[in-house]
Amino acid sequence: MADIKTFHLPDLGEGLPDATIVEWHVKEGDYIKLDAPLCSMETAKAVVDVPSPYTGTVKKLYGAPGDIIETGSALADFEPDPNAKQRAEAEATGHHHGPKKSVGSPAPDNANKVVASDEGGEVEAKADREDEGTVVGAMVSGSHVHVEQAASIGGVKAVPAVRALAKKLKVDLARVRPSGADGVVTMQDVKNAAANGSAALGAAPARAVPASAGRHLAPELPQPEPARTPVSLAGKPVRTAPPSVQASGQPEQLKGVRRNMARVMAEAHANVVPTTLVDDADLHAWIGKQDITARLIRAIVAACKAVPALNAWFDGKNLTRTLHPHVDIGIAVDTEDGLFVPALRNADVLDGAGVRAAIKRLRSQVEDRSIPASELSGYTISLSNFGMFAGRYATPVVVPPTVAIIGAGKLCHDVVAVMGGIEVHRRMPISLTFDHRAATGGEAARFLKALLDDLGLPN
What residue intervals traverse the membrane (predicted)? Predict the structure, then answer.
């Protein structure tokens, strides 16, 4: 009887409970080599390739593209090739591939859980983790990490994130002209192909049907849906039903970033005692054109130095507070896939040019899903610049262990009373939400004042 091995989805190095299948690189019955790409999986942080733990025949695949697989659940069955060299104890490479431990399993004494994110980013970091996980498609064997490279699948070289984008934009990678080194298809290549329509899926011309062929062989054209009007065909008003009677849409399973955001928001709502203060920063004294985001970052740093209580982490279970001497700012980045919050490290020592360069790099990494998980955690305070789109004031969500988040609203011109009359000043609405368990109202008010004072400086 053949020796069948079941491969369980490993922890992909981000502490998340599940991942979504983006694409299988093999099918049942295929022969695959050790460490060759098995499938691409999407987590809350990135799209990663999961390599094969065996050389042999793929006997069964658990799930189809779009399915959510829990960490520790079966992913694929293999029949290892007895004549091929296999990794020693392939299922014991420093990963936990088996079913997840029960909820009641005791945690190690040195476990140190850190949850740091904002509106959709949760990372659990544990000291001396038992499961080192798979990071960006690389498997750990001993202490050596095999770095992921662009895999050649179907004659096309591309990293998992590029394949995922092509699938999303309905671009045929085989028809995209690569511009990367060594013939690798880049993210920009896929975007260009999607924009000009040069590599659309199914764009190849269909074979002509012979005239002698039966009419029933011709493909039927889709019939347009009848236009919706408030009047029936009989000329009478159409009766409507309340929304609760029938839903017109289809339920959609949350995946990846949005799925994680739902979990994090629920946890934050259950654990934080939020309080919000609002005010307006008067920018009338600004001289010349200035980088608004850089000024916001500088003002937050100044406020953190004036009132360190809000540049902190709070442990609600043990009632401990950690004040940070440095300022790492989590900056919310909105994408079609959901919200990412990369960390702007050491904001307290960056000048305006350094802030702009760092933000540009982080946004670029978020857009192409190449940002490391380490860049999405560990910040000390966060910023949501929602005013780029709309809105004046808000109640941004504070996600543990951080204590505060600043929201910047849409710039506006307001009539302001001054000595002897009125003037029109450009102002920026500011919202400060803080965890009232960790900071007092006085500390929050002084923090907000320090932030507004810095924004009010000429330059």
Answer: none
